[in-house]
Design brief:
Strand order of the largest sheet of chain B: 2-3-4-1-5
Oligomer: heterodimer
Helix content of chain B: 40-55%
Structural class of chain B: alpha/beta
Number of helices of chain B: 29
Low-confidence stretches of chain B: 377-416, 427-471
Distance between the termini of chain A: 63 Å
Radius of gyration of chain A: 23 Å
Number of strands of chain B: 8
Largest interface: A-B, 64 and 60 residues
Strand order of the largest sheet of chain A: 4-5-6-7-1-8
CATH class of the largest domain in chain A: Alpha Beta
């Protein structure tokens, strides 16, 4: 493992390493980028580069060896989902009273603290931030730099506010990374205290070549599709689940068809019925919503004379037929309706009903008849 | 690491170093010289403009040991000053109120406040991010804050002063900090780069200052990044890439695509920008600014001092302002503002940005409302044809190079309505209404219908001439039925029947409506039939059967000519109302007669 293993966004990586080389690294960095663009991987690499016991250089810039005790221990945090799952499981085994008080934190090295959003609400809570403000003023034990990584921008309001003072003037030996999909989700007061760096989306051809090297099990057509669907996020593309997406997209098409054309709703009901309430149906619904947005966007491309931007290239024929049935106003309304569905689901409305309602209200003839 | 970011390194240590907050620093200095220091202060304002800094300087000034009394400018070298700067003074206690927000912490503070300061003159509590203190904790502080011991001074710094209870605010002096002006930030940036021995282009600094958006810390954060990322000097291009700003030419191109009505150009441009690494939020924000500047250029002229941009950009903005009318610009600005707001919390950012941009091209095709209203007299048949042919025609007309800038012919304005004159004043586009036929048409219509086109004035409710003698009876019955149904609260039926054709066939009253049989079945219930039948029979003086049949054509809504049933009938005849119904499909919901009320 070294910086050369990081794919894409060479300029941003270069900039960060150069700051490291010149000892100009800021105390707080926001890394922004779409999910799967490598924010966490990059933050972890930087943490190792700061603390490597036998630092190496590549291209004249600092790198890390990946073999020393600091590097290997920090590398254990790479599979964050597994670490979080372990922590959650450990918490489940606690006594009921302790469970409430316990927050999920990932610490694989005394000087590296990863702060993931705390399940089940998946928000970063004030106790987690307190843990940071308590420990940050101690000198690093085995490394040169204390590193804190927040993996999400979903903060509870109090938590975000209690981060402000530490974030403004942390001790000289601490560095904070805040990772986010959208820097706009942070408080403006947080944003103003950090340096914001963006990991941009990669163009489809670049991802395609990456996939060709790392996912030989997919055929060319699949790779081309995934490259377009992953929206420029390398990590997302590598772990893309074509089967799940196709299923979600098929359902999304049924819903859109029902919404765009009048007729029999029995297909629609059959589909929406499968979106169960509760936590188990959440992921499936999220995927459906994403697929819906993706299809709407493609319809918009088709309707506005830019068919080469369409992502779902494999079902272009069907999309074209659908695009003829709808106009721009319909797409705007549908996007609006979809947003309402999303909002409703967040407030625990019945998923199947919200989707039915969406399909029924976006009917184009609603206004002409 | 030993490196300190600029915002921390150059945190002002004297009142005179604080930028853009003269109203605060002057007042505080005077208060110290006149020995009128209050026991509670609230400093409020945006992020990164000096609230905490001023609180610290004030603490230094009060406790400075360079004189026997508080001094208007701290010396910065005595023990107290250096300790406060390092944050380890015993008597100046800076509390992160966002973390220590509970009642227990405040109780502790209250206890400690009773004791005299260890060494210095005052015991000073700085409560930073004070808006996070809980209500209970604030209330626990009230008594102490009203009459604290003479050696205690509280300072609260917050970005949200409205979250602080009134009772606390009334016990403190409240200073609200201003956003720092563009020029002031620029001067400061130039000053700092000189001190840091960094070469920087003037325009690059201007970009940084603009990105700071009134906050000096924001500007300095980005300057930091710029210095770190470029080894030799700061250039415009480097800064632009850093803050993800697309060049102004891109914005100009977008707006050009909007006038040319070319959606694909817009989508193409967005695709390119995004693959270059620009974030949708940032693009939306930039476009909002650009449009705001264009509106300013339109209203106040391109040389206005309100435009805080570089000269190259000024020319671009002026050009774009030239292409659009004031209303169009305002409308586009509104669309982009909403889009920008939505991007903040939505997942599919790119999609929503594209939607917002396409909405602008679609909005560009809309008719201004004044024209619609003033053109109301034009025959209904002509209208759709005109509207259909209008968009491309107008787009072609508005192409920047082929754009004749002529004011409306004066002959036209006198003929139509005040709105035409208004729109001619506001827009400098060639109005396609100047086609010869239009004024003539409207004048002709004016004479024939006798209904005044002048709107907005207190037009008297002129009785519309009774159309055909034979139609009076169904007409009268129709109105009574509709009134009766309205009273019964059956708005759905009313709106359907209103549009139908009413005929009397023997002892049957037949209404033909445009809806299908199924819809009629659903809408017209037994209740409706009973009311309608009874009313019709009563009105005609003989039993009438009420039937609703499909197969009618959608006709313009005729006004109900009942004078007897009060406001609603009169309302429906009012020419203004009629026109609104005709043009916008408005419906009368509630009628309030103010004459009856008085």
């Amino acid at each position: 493992m070294a910086f050369s293993d990081f794919y894409g966004n060479a300029e941003t990586v270069h900039q960060l390493r150069e700051m490291l080389a010149r000892d100009h690294f800021p105390h707080a960095v926001i890394l922004a980028g779409p999910p799967g663009s490598g924010k966490y991987t990059l933050a972890l690499m930087l943490a190792r580069a700061m603390n490597c016991l036998s630092p190496t250089t590549s291209d004249g810039l600092p790198d890390f060896c990946g073999k020393c005790s600091n590097c290997t221990r920090m590398a254990q945090a790479e599979d964050l989902n597994a670490r979080v799952a372990e922590a959650v499981e450990a918490r489940e085994n606690l006594r009921e009273t302790d469970k409430k008080e316990t927050r999920i934190l990932v610490q694989v090295h005394p000087d590296l603290l990863v702060i993931p959003p705390d399940p089940p609400q998946l928000l970063i809570k004030v106790d987690q931030v307190r843990r940071l403000s308590e420990s940050i003023y101690y000198r690093p034990a085995e490394a040169r730099e204390r590193v804190y990584i927040f993996t999400s921008s979903a903060f509870m309001k109090e938590a975000a506010n209690s981060l402000l003072k530490v974030l403004e003037e942390p001790p000289s030996f601490a560095t904070l990374f805040l990772l986010t999909d959208n820097p706009g989700e942070f408080l403006p007061t947080i944003r103003s205290r950090c340096m914001i760096l963006t990991l941009a989306a990669l163009p489809p051809p670049e991802i395609e070549s990456l996939l060709a090297a790392r996912r030989p099990d997919w055929n060319e057509k699949q790779r081309a599709l995934v490259a377009r669907l992953s929206e420029g996020a390398a990590g997302h593309a590598l772990t893309f689940d074509i089967a799940t997406y196709s299923a979600a997209r098929a359902n999304a098409l049924v819903i859109l068809n029902a919404a765009a054309r009048a007729g029999d709703h029995s297909d629609l009901f059959k589909v929406t019925e499968t979106y169960r309430p509760g936590a188990d149906g959440r992921e499936k619904t999220d995927q459906l919503l994403r697929a819906l947005y993706m299809l709407l966007e493609d319809l918009m491309y088709l309707g506005n004379g830019t068919p080469h931007l369409v992502r779902n290239t494999d079902i272009q024929g069907e999309l074209k037929r659908l695009a003829e049935a709808v106009d721009f106003d319909w797409i705007v309304r549908a996007a609006h309706g979809l947003n309402d569905v999303e909002k409703g689901i967040r407030r625990n409305l019945l998923r199947s009903l919200s989707l039915d309602a969406f399909a029924a209200t976006e009917h184009p003839s609603r206004f002409s008849g | 690491m030993s490196y300190q970011v600029l915002a921390r390194k150059y945190r002002p240590q004297k009142f005179s170093d604080v930028i853009g907050q003269d109203h605060v620093t002057r007042t505080l200095k005077n208060a110290i010289t006149q020995d009128r220091v209050a026991h509670g202060y609230i400093f409020s304002g945006h992020r990164g403009i000096g609230k905490t800094t001023v609180a610290r300087i004030l603490a230094m000034a009060l406790n400075c040991r360079s004189a026997e009394h508080p001094v208007p400018e701290p010396c910065g070298i005595c023990e107290s000053c250096t300790e406060i700067r390092a944050g380890n003074s015993v008597d100046v206690i800076e509390i992160d109120a966002a973390t220590n927000r509970g009642i227990d912490e405040i109780r502790e503070l209250r206890e400690a406040a009773r004791y005299r300061p260890a060494r210095d003159r005052f015991k000073i509590y700085i409560l930073d991010e004070a808006h996070q203190i809980t209500d209970a904790a604030f209330n626990a502080l009230l008594k102490t804050l009203e009459e604290p011991p003479s050696h205690v001074i509280f300072m609260m710094a917050t970005t949200q002063p409205e979250d602080i209870p009134q009772t606390i605010r009334s016990r403190c002096q409240h200073f609200s900090f201003r956003a720092v002006k563009f020029e002031e930030i620029l001067t400061q940036l130039a000053d700092l780069t000189a001190r840091e021995n960094v070469v920087a282009e003037r325009d690059a600094l201007a970009l940084l200052a603009e990105a700071g958006d009134g906050s000096i810390r924001d500007a300095l954060s980005i300057l930091d990044q710029a210095i770190a990322s470029s080894s030799e000097g700061i250039t415009v291009d480097a800064v632009r890439q850093l803050i993800g700003t697309a060049p102004a030419s891109v914005m100009e191109g977008m707006m050009q695509a909007v006038i040319h009505n070319s959606s694909q150009d817009i989508l193409q441009a967005v695709d390119e920008l995004i693959s270059e690494g620009h974030s949708p939020t940032h693009l939306a924000r930039q476009l909002v600014r650009f449009l705001r500047n264009a509106v300013v250029a339109k209203v106040a002229g391109e040389n206005s001092a309100l435009l805080q941009v570089s000269s190259d950009e000024r020319a671009r903005i002026a050009r774009v302002a030239e292409w659009f009318s004031e209303e169009d610009l305002a409308r586009h600005l509104q669309i982009m503002l909403r889009t920008h707001g939505e991007l903040g919390y939505r997942q599919e950012q790119r999609f929503h940005l594209e939607l917002g941009l396409l909405k602008m091209t679609h909005a560009q095709r809309l008719l201004p409302i004044e024209q619609l209203l003033s053109g109301a007299a034009v025959a209904a048949v002509a209208a759709p044809a005109r509207a259909a042919g209008r968009a491309p025609e107008r787009a072609a007309e508005r192409a920047p190079e082929a754009r004749p800038i002529s004011t409306a012919p004066s002959a036209r304005t006198s003929a139509v309505s005040p709105f035409a004159a208004d729109s001619a004043r506001k827009t400098n586009r060639t109005p396609e209404m100047s086609s010869e036929t239009k004024p003539v048409q409207s004048v002709a219509k004016l004479e024939s219908s006798g209904s005044p086109v002048i709107m907005g004035s207190a037009a008297p409710a002129v009785e519309v001439a009774v159309e055909v003698a034979a139609a009076t009876e169904p007409q009268a019955i129709r109105d009574s039925i509709l009134d009766a149904l309205t009273d019964a609260g059956q708005q759905m039926v009313v709106s359907m029947l209103e549009a139908g054709e009413w005929t009397l066939e023997g002892n049957q009253l037949v209404v033909r409506v445009a809806s299908s049989a199924a819809v009629i079945d659903m809408t017209v219930g037994a209740d409706t039939r009973r009311i309608a039948g009874a009313t019709a029979s009563g009105r005609a003086g003989r039993p009438l059967k009420f039937t609703v049949l499909p197969g009618g054509t959608e006709s313009a809504v005729e006004p109900r000519s009942t004078g007897a049933s009060g406001g609603r009938g009169r309302m429906a005849q009012d020419p203004v109302v009629r026109r609104l119904q005709e043009k916008f499909g408005a419906e009368i919901r509630t009628v309030i007669d103010y004459r009856e009320k008085h």
